[in-house]
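P.,

For your records, the input lines for the assembly:
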Amino acid sequence: MIFYMTMGIGVMLLFAVSFVLFFLLSQRKLHQEQQKIQEQNLLHQEQLLYSTIQTQEEERKRIAKDLHDDIGSKLNVIHLGLYRLQKQMVDDPEHAVIFREVSEILQDTIGATRRIAHDLLPPTLENFGLKEAIRELCDKYSRSGAVNAHFEVFRQSERPCNKKAEVNLFRVVQELSSNSIRHGKAEHILISMWITDTEIRIEFTDDGLGFDPDLIPQGKGLGTQSMLSRLKMIGASMYFDTAPNAGYKAFIQYPYPISAL
Amino acid sequence: MIPAYDVMRFIINVTWLPVVLSLVTLIWKRHTLSLTHVIIGVYLFGTGMVNFAAGRFSAHRINNLPLLHFYTLIEFIGWAFFYRVLFYDVRWIERFFWPFLFGGAVLIVANTLFLESPFVFNSNAKSVTQSFFILASIYYFFYNFGKTDFSQPQHLSVGLINIGVLLYYSGSLFIFMFSKMLIATHASREDQVGFWLLNSLLALVFQILIFTSILITTNKSSRKK
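Structure tokens returned:
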């Protein structure tokens, strides 16, 4: 009986230990597989977002170019034609009024087309780079009276930045400024930029309402998510500091890719 | 060489340490406990009381087996409630819980009254209840396969208790099943002590796992605060 009892205990213990080990190992394997799938999904989503941002940027560029080069120049030709037509027509006060009205509408349309094209892709960014584009953005905001925007640059390097990074950094600064005005109700914005041989650093500060980061789920709205994706896409990072009624501060760091150094 | 009986007594005494530490921790952190750990606390308190009384009985050379009969009932009710909490979302368990608990308790008492005297080992009741604990623990692992994340303190904590239940009751099932027969067949004292030594060793491991589980869950609660 002692033998059978010992055997029984041994078998039961062996069963229990094997069962527990089997469970733990299978569970671990399952978890690893689930994690792998989750990572792949995340990567896929990220790539999808990157390509959406890239397509969006290319579309903006195309529409801006079409507006400026095609529609804009044709409107100018129409305006010129109208001006010539006016000269050739006999003096009739009624015609003169209609001409003036049409001319004004046409000039407004030319102005609006140019503005939309500039908003879609500032030519300054294309032609003079990030620094001048941000400066222009600040001037535009200050002129509009929406906010008093100030920009300062501490340039320690003359090295050029790649266009893709510049466009994305500019979009982020644009989004931050727009958020400060729309949501933060800021009166002053200060953008400081450091350009060194290895990186670009941007510090964005406003005196707006700020917010409690804990009250926003995961600290990410759609705008923030888009900004973070843009920055991640170019290998940059951002963190922010805010509290209710204490303004908003964002720190962006874009290290130049090692291959470009 | 140290006699097996002394080693067994030593292990039994050492087992008090995790039991007492578990109880102190549970009382200390009573406001942050989950229901499973409240049940574990009540179970540990019952276990401690019965074991303490059994020790006193033994010291006064009084047959302490009636306490084992009583303990079987407490143990059954304690683990039944514990698994009810773990399987709160399993409809058939919720549906049959009260008839099962009542039926089980009646059978344990009936076994003591009509089949196995309180002054002998209640091998029948012990074997049945221990089999139930083993099955419940296995079912827990099957039911939670793929849903458990041991990086989460609550999952790890409950998982450790279940590992303890499976190991302890699987190991001691045959000991209690044959304990009555060991005496009836006049097995040598060395053989009997050997089995009880193994049982006490398993009980020590079980109590250490329970204590670890409590530490994990209470540490999590403290951090949360």
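Two observations worth noting. Chain A touches chain B at residues 1-2, 5, 8-9, 12-13, 15-17, 19-20, 23-24, 26-27, 30-31, 34 (CB under 8 Å). Chain A has a mean pLDDT of 87.

Regards
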